[in-house]
Amino acid sequence: MRTAACLLFGLAFAAAVQASASPEDIKAAVLSNPVSVHRGEREFGRTCAMCHGSGGTGGVGKRLADRHLMPDYIFQTITNGLRRGASFMPSFGQKLSVEVRWELVAYIMSLGSGRQGGD
Amino acid sequence: MNSTMHRITGTLLAMLVSHAVLAKDPESVNPADWPQYHRTSNAWRYSPLDLINSGNVKRLKVAWIHQPGDITNGLQATPIVIDGVAYYTSPYNTVFALNAATGEQLWRYDPDINPIIYQMILTGQSRGVTVGRGKVYIGTSDGKFIALDQKTGKEVWLKQIVQPKKCQCGFTSPPQLAGDILYGGTMGGDFATSSTLFAVHADTGEPAWSFDTISRDPQSWPKEAARHGGGAAWLPGTYDEKTDTIYIGTGNAAPDFDGLDRPGDNKYTATLLALEPETGKIKWYNQEIPHEIWDYDSTFELLRVKRNGREYLVHPSKSGFVFVYNKQGGRPDHVWRMARNITIADGYDLEKGDFSGRVYNHKRGQETLLCPSPDGIRNWNHGAYNPSTGLWYNNTMEMCLRIKPVKIDPASLGLTQAYFGTEELEFVPPPGGASTHLEGRDPVTGKLGWSVDYHGAPGLGSLLTTGGNLVFDIDTLGVMRAHDARTGKELWHFRLGSGSRGGIVSYAVHGKQYILATSGISGWVYGSVSAVFKKIKQTPGGGIIIAFTLEDE
Questions:
Q1: A77 touches chain B (CB under 8 A)
Q2: Helix %, strand %, coil % for chain A, to 5?
Q3: For residue B548, what pLDDT is reported?
Q4: What is the DSSP string of A44-86?
Q5: Do A49 and B408 touch (CB under 8 A)?
Q6: What's the pTM value of the predicted model, to 2 decimals?
Q7: What integer pLDDT is reported at residue B552 of this predicted model?
Q8: Which chain A residues contact residue B522 at CB under 8 A?
Q9: Mean model confidence pLDDT for chain B
Q10: How far, in Å, CA of B419 to CA of A49, rounded?
């Protein structure tokens, strides 16, 4: 039942996002949508958990839970990747749509990132 | 003793040592060299040199350091040393040739690497070079085999073997020589791809043969699942000249943890292959884990040792079990347990050729604990065998992985997305606690000779043992140690500043023995191990290759 409701909400949401093409609009629409966290969690599980651990607990990649990260920083890092010292994170801009990347941001923020930061 | 005298004496000593040890050196390799990945094709990682020994190792001092400049994902190379020249690679396959006595750079080669690899996860990692036939060979992150002139570093030939975007793969290990054949497999078995071993003619780069590690037998694989079944042979194989055989192991089946859509034994994943070098045809094989569902690769080195005139093939696996074959062409005669914590099976059934007490498939949506973790009781960092002690040395780490298997549509995955088949992934300690050791065991029986507790900082580099009764290792805090090969007692240590994923080697130039190590840790395994062994999380990355020799008296 919950899944069906989420699906319907998600379809309606996707149509709304498609209608408004501006990146800022997409960001605002995704971050204000409660379904985004759930969708971001699913994508995180199959794309990000390999390095950042389930729930962002850290591993190969840094811990994401309880960090003070800004939404735009998270989005840019997902989009462009990161090379710092010996650490390397690939870029996901070519693979994941803008909407999916913002859904990941929504989920990562829900883990506590930005609790004291914000945008 | 003045330095001139010391060098003369050293030369004489080296000559005497050389003659003394030749009988012990099974393949009559020049004792002064480290000419191939494991030094000899029996994968011993043993140098017979004994000028540096348990009696004087305390006098080891730095001889020289070389910095490659790029430290992304750390250094993973085992240096090759021939006739006083050391060859190694840094990340993204930059090749260096150095004067092995002084560290002076003789030449450098920077390949043009396709930027597509910056969209890939396991990228930039390079385990070094192969040297032979007047050439230096590399396999690159972006899917090429390249041959360089050994003296100048100039390109002799370059062949694009695979397309990274298509196969989500590239080469992380140097292709190996088997006569005039150069062969190697790709990484990428954790992605939605089907793997292949490739062979070319070493002098020209022209294709010789290829071997699909995913069988097309419908009894073994459903047709659709075989298209992305994994099976990558991503580590260097070994070539036994006596039997004219290439030995190489293959990796996990994919999706790694969800086997429901790939019923069958999933050949030739998790398999030890013995191949004909000229044709790539199978001479014999043994699938060590049919229908593998734990990401337990069988890619590690094949150790060959003799006992009472009989040759044994010893093949470690991530699973925590070690497979021992006492004849070519068959099932193992003995399987011993290296790991204490094994949750996926209660043993190995030799008749059945599979684990006993295993599940055939995990339940989707159910949290499941895998011990050992898919990093293995030992990761790919290689062991070393000393013929004087009869012990085979390995770093072990007792840790587990918690998963929740789920069906994944492979068509939905891109370059950056692994085909694990789980929606949760968390490295955790075993129920009794995580531990890590350096161990010396009889490779045939598994009997423990000695064990040293590494107190939560596992060694992730490949070991060296020597005719000087020594075992060299580097832990993940960056402490390099020399141990007594008979007892495990620590005899010397040096702080390198970073851990190591590379190999330690030994060689001699002008009668002086050197120990050569790489330092610079990063990468996927180090990261996942640090999720359990948290004290190593703060270890910095880096990149140096550092040579030690005895201080002049």
A1: no
A2: 60, 5, 35
A3: 98
A4: IIIIIHHHH-GGG--SSSPP-TT----HHHHHHHHHH-EEETT
A5: no
A6: 0.91
A7: 81
A8: 85-88
A9: 93
A10: 12
